[in-house]
Amino acid sequence: MTIFFKIAWRNILRNKRRSFITISAVSFGLAAVIFLWSFVDGFQYQMKEGIKSLITGDIQIYPKGAEGLYNVNIFIEDPAEVRKILRETPGIEKYVERILTSGIISSANNSMMTFVVGADPASENKFNPKNYLTAGRDITAADEHETVIGEPMAKQLEVGLGDKIVVVMQDRYGSLVGESFRVVGIFKTGSDQIDHSTVYLNQPIVQRMLALEQQKTKIIIRTHPDRPIKPILETLRSKLDLNKYKISPWEEIAPMLSQLVEFQQRMIFIVVVIVLSILGTGVLNTLMMSYIERIREFGLMKALGTKDPQVALLLFLETLWLTFVGTVMGAGLGMGLAAILAKRGIDLSRFGETFSNFFIGTTIYPKIHWEHVGLAILVVLCANLLAAFYPAWKAAKLEPMEAMRQVG
Amino acid sequence: MITLKNLSKTYHSDGLAVEALQGVNLEIKKGEFVTLAGPSGSGKSTLLHLLGALDHPTLGEIFIDGQNIGSLNKNKLAEFRLRKIGFVFQAYNLISVLTAYENVEYVMLLQGVSLKQRKKRAEELLVRVGLANYIHTRPIHMSGGQQQRVAVARAIAANPAIVLADEPTANLDSKTGADLIALFRELGESFAMTFVVASHDPMVIEKTQRLIRLKDGQVVEDR
What we know:
- The complex is a heterodimer.
- Chain A is of the alpha+beta class.
- Chain A has helices at 2-14, 16-56, 79-88, 121-127, 151-157, 192-197, 203-209, 229-239, 250-253, 255-293, 295-303, 308-344, 352-355, 370-396, 400-406; strands at 59-63, 92-106, 111-119, 133-136, 146-150, 164-170, 176-187, 198-202, 218-223, 245-249, 346-347, 363-364.
- Chain A has a 6-stranded mixed barrel with strand order 2-3-8-5-7-6, surrounded by 4 helices. In chain A, strands 11-12 form a two-stranded antiparallel sheet.
- In chain A, a hairpin with a 4-residue loop joins strand 2 (92-106) and strand 3.
- The longest helix of chain A is centred in the N-terminal third of the chain and has 41 residues, at 16-56.
- Chain B is α/β, with parallel strands linked by helices.
- In chain B, strands 6-7-8-3-9-10 form a 6-stranded mixed sheet, sandwiched between helices.
- In chain B, helix 3 (100-111) packs parallel to helix 5 (144-157) and helix 4 (115-128) crosses helix 5.
- The model of chain B has no long low-confidence stretch (mean pLDDT 87).
- Chains A and B meet through helix 1, helix 11 and helix 15 of A and helix 2 and helix 3 of B.
């Protein structure tokens, strides 16, 4: 076996220029694929993190029957019961309780429909420490008639810091209630949905306006990043009364984004297979040229007693050498580039409008997923070994004398 | 030890049948140094290839050490060549990416000989054929004569029963050719191997122990 490794490697070196071109093609192709995949993984990671930290969490608990986003009449009546179970369930990193409803927000100049988030500032800051403020400050527990709104909403309402707005909602008994609030902060999350139409108020005042006591609309949970969501979901479903609560993973709450993630992954895999298969044809070309040049030598080897599978093995080993060197270089290049850009980020602010519904901001940080790097390497290996089949079969089937007579 | 019974080989080319060998009957004893002579196209290379299990006869049988090699399948023929036959071809004898030592070692590796034995035998044989200073040299850096010597060392290294050489002196100058044949005789005597050499080189014919002359695929002289 060692001798075949040696012969294979020296045959790679025999035509250095040709081998270099083939190895370079494998390297650049693999590097491109690894980088592209890390870019998509980074994009998807930011998108998932964005929606999870801003809206869905990893898991949501909400009252059964309140599957529609904001149903003013159905609440989690006893959040303490849920809290207790959450504290006892391993794998839960943090959670936040929100009151969500809809209403009308008006300034001196304009009015518009709005989603109202009754938030507990301390819990929210812990839940999502990222600061989205572009002006002013966040609301605190001490605030009552203060609010933060999104940049586009402020623009539409023609208000700025210190200006007053009025929020009108329907309480749990159907009566209209309204209060005025002073804008103390303006934020920009990068999500159209939030920035255009969400107003954040302190939770106690929202409870009071809606005639609520301890009730909450939703409890939003983040799990530990290294713990799979499914077992935690199952534990919660086994512990909480499913006649009262609905417990959903983020994919159920935002199916469009979840399907987009899956669709992108399948697309990228198809691209990987196509690109690497094209590289396989390059390897096939190299091996065929190598085979044609060495027909006489294969004949000699067979005359000396080398068996058909050993001759085929030699060509497979040459493929493995080409693939190995190409893979080491390509994976190094691809991951190196991804790692550099993972630190610096790729500024795509000129496409900001396109990304504004994906919760990712305008800078993408590529993210290396080892399983995707491994899969790309596996695909390149399979494509190249598949490409080696034909020349290996041709070489294995050579008749020694015919081969030795062919050239020279 | 080698018995050929009514051996015939017909090639077909462009619809024409060319009878390369016609009903050859021969016996070659162990340890003999035999030269197959005759003009080009007389059938000596064909006979050599049939003896080496590199080709199949159209008719007739070849027995080597009592075994009918016509009954062997492709895999067994490869094994037969590996264990029983040493080849020295006219040219393109060596695996170009391997050194002289590695070329000699190659067949022993296929045979599964241990590293220690391979090393000892390959080095001994290369010294024996006068290539002590070329052990780790690749064929491209060696002359034609030196390459033929490596091929001889390789043919002997596997301890074959028969060494077949096809026009081994054709690409060599007369002195190198004479040295090579002397080497064949010497190795044949030392290792009790049968040498069958196809050649129309008068020097080879002169130095042979037994001459079999072929013409139009038939044995016309055997002395």
